[in-house]
Amino acid sequence: FQPITTPNPDPSPPLKYTHEIRYSTVAFTESTCQASDVSFNMGSVSLSSFQGAGVRNGSWTQQNLNINNCPAGLNRISIILTTPPAGWLDSGNKVFKLNDSSDAATAKGIGIQLALGPSQTIAQYDTPIPVNNYGYNSFTGGSFTVPLSARYIKPASSSVIAAGRANASVIF
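Now predict its structure.
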């Protein structure tokens, strides 16, 4: 065996070059789509259809949320439904109160439940809900629709019901 010798490394430090990089007029923007208000015509519902605890009026009323002018290149499109302005009638089942619940002309003991998509999944609130799987094309952008459904519900906690206006709102 012959020993292998390695040359002594150069004790001088490596050369370093310092360059300054300046950024000017850089603007970070958040790409967004546009959407307009959605109104449901829930029609008239007989109080007799709400006998019992936790009763739904049976049918969903359907409407589309139109999401328009989405730019190309988005990886994810989400909506956020905020806690309804009137609050919850049954927060566990996502049934929100009617507007003007203290007004004598407003129905009592009845709330509204909102669902998204063709499978009518009960909507979640205050959290992003992905919706780009309803027809958004990330290469071209464009517009698409998200099916929404709403129905009246008498939660199990409502012992008294009364007829009246049954309007409500949610902000997205």
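The chain has a mean pLDDT of 85.
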